[in-house]
Amino acid sequence: MLNEGKSKEELMDKINELKAILESNQESTQKIIENERVLSQTALELVDLSPSIDIYDFIAKKLANLIENAIIAVSMYDGPSDSIMVRSVIGENKRLNELSQKILGGGLTDIKIPLTSFNEFYGDKESKNTILSGKLLKMEDGLYQVFSGQLSKNITRMAELTLNMGDMYGTGFESKGRLYGTVYIFLKNGNTLKNKELVQSLISLFAVAIQRKQAENEIKTALEEKEMLLKEIHHRVKNNLMIISSLLNLQSSYIHDEGARDVFKESQNRANSMALIHERLYQSTDLKNIDFGDYIRSLTTDLYHTMVADPGQVRLDIDVEDVKIDINTVVPLGLIVNELVTNSMKHAFPGDESGHIKVEFYLKNEKIVLKVSDNGIGFPTDLDYKNTSSLGLQLVNNLTSQIDGELELDRSQGTAFTLVFEEKE
Question: 290-300+308-425, superfamily in CATH?
């Protein structure tokens, strides 16, 4: 009987042991599933993160929600000062700010640790590789290590006692051998870092996100610099064209032959037309979407005041939409407008003839239409506008081919040139 009772007890112990193992495995499985859910959700949030949300605040808040009663500090590399700069701190902010003001003379986000100090503190290669590994490490020297020795051990120890700090963990993020950010976790005295695996996985995820953010910022800066350079080039080209126009104007005053003087005047108008284009490009904030309607208004009005002696004799009608076109189309199209409008103003109304010139620019069936018409004496019937010795029309035909457009002439009521083209992708 005794042996039988003992056997039952052993059997029950074994059953209880197996139940405990099963429960432990079940808890571990649930923990793994929950960790994967948190990681997946965080990854999706990072992908859809709005540009208006600071990624460093996002990281600090995520870690603070996961680790109770902890202080989280996230920093980034600041190129201009060549230092590690605190970007976001969550937890005990009021007391931390007071302490920061007292010890450092500034707020938390004013804290900067020179990169040279960081490199000197982690002097040997092994220590530096460890802190840059992205793995969460325990800071054995506490705040003294966090500040890379910039503050004395006495001061850092006083701060730890004031804030009741216990264990500290941190890591740095490295790309191409360069530190670009750090994360530090400060636990309350007596607390332990629970779920360290999930924290480590999140930090690895944040490291990729910060690296991507840094890359985006570098690309943005490079694009801004490129845009500034392009604007400066357009500004200088405009100035040079204005100088050429002034020289042509000065030279024409010494020419007595009217035909030769007209040639100089036309060249001057072309230079002015291109100068106006480059002025628009310099002022534009988006070189892919330039308001060409506004350019036509300015150019044709300038030509009208320059070439038409009596506004009562020739009227100018401008009917243009604010169609946006690309930088590659602006220059050739601007010269086409100049040539066609100049042609009407110069030839349509000889002597005392009167009438009107109309310039239209609009979108129709996803195509862009430019139409310059007049009710003057009409285009000569014996002249082929596509095969002529006129420099202006040769220029118009060549530039039309350049933008893959189609140019048509209507002689039924004076002269009407219509250019139809599609904006290139």
Answer: Histidine kinase-like ATPase, C-terminal domain (3.30.565.10)
